[in-house]
Amino acid sequence: MLRRGLLIAPLVLIAIGVLAWSQRRAAPFFVSGYLEADEIRVGSRVGGRVQLVHVEEGQRVAQGDKLVTLDPFDLQEQLAEAQAVLAARKAVLDKLRAGFRQEAIAQARAKRDRAAALLARLEAGPRPLELQILEDRLEAARANLVRAQSEYERVKKLYDEAQATRDEMDEATRQIDAARASFAAARDELALAREGTRAEEIAEAGASLSQAEAALAELKAGYRAEEIAEAEANVQAAQAARDAIRRRLDELTILAPLDGSVEAVDLQPGDLVAVNAPVLTLVDASRLWVRAYVPENRINLRIGQRVQLRVDALPDRRFAGRILFIARQAEFTPANVQTPEERSKQVFRIKVLVDEGREVLRPGMSADVFLESAP
């Protein structure tokens, strides 16, 4: 009988051990936390008065959807002015690159030729034919003066005898004065021609020719490189000014940066929005994760390790996830740890990404993360 009891005792101990092991296996270790999602506070770099609010709280939006439109105020007018300035500066640049017109070059060449001909004539002096013409002109002026003098004397005699009128006397006087002036001009012109061209006249004609040649050379060479470079810089500055206004106009329409849902919006048309201030909050529900804390004696985990999650709203369903982050430093560590029990109070923060169930899961749900030590 004693021998039988000795045989039963080990069996009882084995049974107790198996039961304890099975209970431990039946109750896997888990940590708790809450589902979280990234929040994006969307705003504008320009600010202004709200013109339209396109969304409501809770509304799903896709990347690029309009959220809020701000009043452009006078930006459209500024853009039109900037475009006009840019067009004018481009026209100047195109003109400089094209060079001078052929008509302008032809006119400058003709002016140069006239200046050269004048200088050559002055340097050569009067030709014999020209002197003969001037002498003939002087003789004609002298004959005209003789006739005018004779007529004047005749009328004056009659006028003195009261046989001619005052008008006739005045006309005779005008005729002789004109004849004297013509004779003097012809005499002086012939005298100058016989003396030849003066040195100052030749110098003046030479200077005019040099100016005409320089102007023609400049037209042929086109505009200087520095003038074109300056015009190009002006065009670039005008483009930059126009693009800056366009960016400001683009910033007036606030778009969704990603797919998500509107978490909070408290705006009405007419409200003022400050520069760089958020106008609403989007939640990126496509990326859910859980922040949890694991005791030190359970931290045998690794990045990328697969885990299971459970939420209170769906207790009979499990969702797959994986560990994204494990803190390098413990938290809630006592100042002086003396015993193993106290060391177990140290915890490490982990972040678990939810891989499925985003269509039914919501940020803020309480969640349990079932962990198994890494192999």
pLDDT averaged over residues: 80
**Quick one: biggest sheet?**
6 strands, antiparallel, barrel
Number of helices: 8
CATH topology of the domain at 28-67 and 262-370: Elongation Factor Tu (Ef-tu), domain 3
For the record, what CATH class of the domain at 28-67 and 262-370 applies? Mainly Beta
Number of strands: 12
Low-pLDDT residue intervals, each spanning 5 or more residues: 1-7, 18-24, 334-339
- CATH homologous superfamily label of the domain at 28-67 and 262-370: Efflux pump adaptor protein, beta barrel domain
Structural class: alpha+beta
Order of helices and strands: HEEEEHHHHHHEEEEEEHEE
Oligomer: single chain
Share of β-strand residues: 15-25%
CATH architect. name of the domain at 28-67 and 262-370: Beta Barrel
Shape: rod-shaped
| Ends apart, CA distance between termini | 47 Å
Share in helix:
40-55%
The strand line-up of the biggest sheet is 1-8-11-10-9-12
**What's the Cα radius of gyration?**
54 Å
